[in-house]
Amino acid sequence: MNKTLLLISSLPSDQVFAAEVAKDCGLALQTVSSPSIGAEMIDRESPALIFCDISDEQHFAELEREIQEKVGLFSDKVDPNRVHLMSTEDIEESSFILESPLFGNFIIRDIHDPVGAAHSYARIAKGSLQERPVGLAQWLRPNAKIQTIQLKQSNHKQDAVEAVRNYVLAAQFNQRMASLIANAVDEILMNAIFDAPVDELGKQRMSSTPRTAGFALEGQQTVEIQVGFDGERFGLTAIDQFGSVEKSRLTKHVAKVYREDEYKVRSTTAGAGIGLSRVFRDGGTFVYVVEQGKRTEATILFKRTSSFREFKEQFRSFSVLFYV
Amino acid sequence: MINVTKELNGGTLTVRMVGSIEETVNFEELIGTPPQELVVSTKEISRINSVGVKGWIKYFQGLSSRGVRIRFIECSTSIVEQINLISNFTCGGSVESIFVPFACNNCKSELVGLFTTQSLKDSGLAIPSVKCGKCGGTAEFDDIPEEYLGFLER
Question: Using a CB-CB distance cutoff of 8 angstroms, which residues of chain A are in contact with residue B102?
Answer without folding.
Answer: none
